[in-house]
Design brief:
binds pyridoxal-5'-phosphate, about 15% strand, five-stranded mixed beta sheet, Aspartate Aminotransferase, domain 1, alpha/beta
Length: about 375
């Protein structure tokens, strides 16, 4: 089956009892045993598994071409499950521009439990130098946030696997529509389903998808079950519903983002545009090889500093100033202010989650805002 078909059908079970075409939300926390003490429906207790979560995990696994998926209550909870699954004392290599929430998780919650280095994972020589005997995991995030840097997943996987190291890719920015890390050799994919998979800025969730159901995956399942950071049946239902339109939403996000990036690139008051689909992107060739399409996120630097960047934001009417991404509405954000003083993000950078409004309206709005500079 092709991905549009999977998105619609793999997360749904038509009810044998009522004939309901759309799977209902199962709120029950507990499930009845049969006369022999077995569980005919396959579920025991809702922290362990639930019909809506099972459907969500099924569609997520199929979309990423994985063997199985585990859904969590947030993207950070999914990331935490990965770090908790590693033996204490393991060494983790992560990008120096890793999503700041997960970077803070490692720094503040895993201090003394794991060791970690935040490095430029695109520098293969540096990557090799940082590998230790205890290195268990290389974490990748591509395209990265907010600089939209591209990491060559295949190249990193090659180095990692030579050294018996696992590779996890945070695929939140790309979505399975734009990039399939498991096909490029990665061992696991992580998502903040809060973003494009939810797509409407009204559900918080996360997921992990594995290439193989190996011992490591059993450990991840244990973290999900014993740790208990699981999504509610209602949230799983909402995600399954949203995922049905993911392929078509992404087509719109990608085409709007490319047009907006091309427009911004030609504006005299714009210093630089970062979008992997532009020829001017330093890793355009890698992006073209490993991505199916270039995603809906872009960043640009206005000429000047933080003051000019904020002036643009405050002149916009259609783009809402807010954090997060992946919803149907366009959002814009001054990342430096969000990330705080240890941020390496340029002060004149604005990050845009390009929504599904008509592109002409978006361009007109941003054009007027830039002309206010
Ligand atoms: C939002 C985000 C996360 C964290 O997800 P939450 O759902 O907010 O916990 C992780 N990685 C990336 C790239 C994100 O954008």
């Amino acid at each position: 089956m092709k991905i549009e078909t999977i998105a619609i059908h793999a997360g749904n079970v038509t009810s044998a009892d009522t004939g309901a075409v759309i799977q209902p939300v199962t709120l029950s926390t507990t499930f009845k045993r049969d006369a022999d003490g077995g569980y005919p429906g396959g579920h025991i207790y809702s922290r362990i598994s639930n019909p809506n979560r099972a459907s969500l995990e099924n569609v997520l696994a199929k979309l990423e071409g994985g063997a199985a998926a585990a859904a969590f209550s947030s993207g950070n909870a999914a990331g935490m499950a990965v770090f908790q699954s590693l033996p204490p004392g393991s060494h983790v290599i992560a990008p120096d521009d890793m999503y700041h929430g997960l970077r803070n998780q490692l720094k503040y919650l895993f201090e003394g439990i794991l060791t970690f280095d935040f490095i430029d994972v695109n520098d293969m020589a540096a990557l090799n130098d940082y590998i230790e005997d205890s290195t268990a995991l290389i974490w990748l995030e591509t395209p990265s946030n907010p600089l939209l840097k591209i990491t060559d997943i295949r190249a990193v996987v090659e180095i990692a696997h030579e050294n018996g190291i696992k590779v996890v890719v945070d695929n939140t920015f790309a979505t399975p529509m734009c990039q399939q890390p498991l096909n490029l050799g990665a061992d696991m994919v992580m998502h903040s389903t809060t973003k494009y998979l939810g797509g409407h800025s009204d559900v918080t969730g996360g997921a992990l998808i594995c290439k193989q159901k190996d011992d490591w995956w059993q450990k991840i399942r244990q973290v999900q079950e014993f740790g208990g950071a699981i999504p509610s049946p209602q949230d799983c239902y909402m995600l399954v519903r949203s995922i049905k339109t993911l392929p078509y939403r992404m087509k719109g996000h990608v085409s709007n983002a490319l047009l907006l990036a091309q427009f911004l690139e030609h504006q005299p008051k714009v210093e630089k545009v970062m979008y992997p689909g532009l020829y001017s992107h330093p890793q355009y060739n890698i992006a073209k090889q490993q991505m199916l399409s270039f995603g809906g996120m872009l960043s640009f630097c206005v000429k000047g500093g933080a003051e000019e960047a904020k002036k643009v934001i405050n002149s916009l009417k259609l783009f809402t100033q807010a954090t997060s991404l992946g919803g149907v509405e366009s959002l814009i954000e001054h990342r430096y202010s969000v990330e705080g003083p240890d941020s390496k993000t340029p002060k004149n950078l604005l990050r845009v989650s390009v929504g599904l409004e008509n592109i002409e309206d978006l361009i007109e709005d941003i054009s007027l805002a830039i002309s206010s500079l």
